[in-house]
Structures are given as structure tokens and as C-alpha cells.
Amino acid sequence: MNALMAASGPLVGVLLGFGFGFVLERAGFGSGCKLTAQFRLTDWSVFKVMFTAIVFAAVGIYVLELAGWVEAASIYVPAPYLWAVAAGGALIGAGFAVGGYCPGTSAVGVMTGRIDALVFFGGILIGTFAFASLFPWLDPLTTAGELTKGDRLPEALGVPEWLVLAVLVAAAVGVFFLGGWFERRARQRGAA
Asked: What residues contact 145, with CB distance under 8 A and at least 6 apart?
């Protein structure tokens, strides 16, 4: 039985990847135009979906832990390296704003025949190989600024977990209202 489960792991990963890609495409996230609208503050659906997923997962894990079904301490959380996260976030954010795609959505765009996504995906491959060849020199950056005070945000901030989750939920509600306001404003400008 264990051998069957181990052998099916890659297949499950591929099937989940195709399912995730299908959902992204159906939501319109395989289009660079839809994604760059987020940066123009005219379509907040990408931000709403991602923020909802983060909040749902965080609150879900907390509730499952309270019910005794999951032990949060057993969930692997990689050590955060602040300088690497900041540099990577800036680079991927700039690429996202310029190209209209992140790595996942560019793969979806390629699979649906979008030429701009193919160009962007090619850039991702070139960047990946360039990073790999430069890694010996970049390694100090990838491990700089390790956050060592606790593995999780509540421990790092020294506050109860429920408080972090309450702030996340409040921020999500605020983002939904703010995003809706920006979207209505953009529609009114378009109609005028």
C-alpha cells in the first residue's frame, strides 16, 4: 500500500496542477490584461482571490487545530529570510507589473495559446537558469536576514494567534470594500 501511495504522488501532483490551472483559466487569470488591471486598480479580483485563500487557510488551520484534528506545530514552515523575500518579491512584482503574468498564470497562458504568456514563460526559464548559474555568488543573499524569533507570525510578534487572524479577517473585509470602491470608480470613469 505504501509503495502504491508513493508511486501515485507525482500523478496526484500533476492532476492537482492541471486542476489548479483549469480554475485559474476559468477565473480569467490566464490573461495578462486581467492581471495587470490589478496594478491599475481597476480589477481587484486577483487580490481578492489570493487574500481570501490566505485567510481561509489560516483560519481553517486554526479551527482544525482547536478541534484537535491538526497539530499546527507539525506543519512545516520554512525559515523566512527577509532580504531574500524582499528581493524576490520586488523582482517578481516588477515582472508581474510589466509582463502581466506570474509563473503560474504564465503556464496557464501558454497552455491556452497566448503568445505573450509564451514570451513571459521563456523569460522565467532564462531567469531560472541564470539564477542557478549565479547561485554560488547569490547564496549569501538567499540566507540573509533570517527571522529567528519563532517559526510563525504570532510568536514573532509576541501576540496571540487569534489576534493575528482577527486582523487578517478585518484586513480582508477592508480590502473587499476598498477593491469594490476602486472597481466601481473605474467603471464610472469608463462609462463617462
From this structure: 81, 82, 83, 84, 86
Domain count, the chain: 1
Whether 1 is in a domain gets the answer no
Segment 57-112, tens digit of pLDDT? 999 999 999 999 988 778 877 777 888 889 888 988 888 888 888 888 899 999 99
Query: Could you list the residue range(s) of the whole structural domain that residue 66 is in?
Result: 29-191
CA dihedral 96, 112, 125, 99 (to 10 degrees): -20
pTM: 0.71
Cα 129 to Cα 30, 52, 107, 122, 134: the distances in Å are 24, 33, 17, 11, 9
Decide if 114 is inside a domain.
Answer: yes
**Is 19 part of a structural domain of the chain?**
no
Q: Do residues 130 and 123 make contact, with C-beta atoms less than 8 angstroms apart? A: no
**Spatial CB neighbours of 15, under 8 Å, sequence gap ≥ 6:** none
Residues 176 and 48: beta-carbon distance below 8 Å: yes
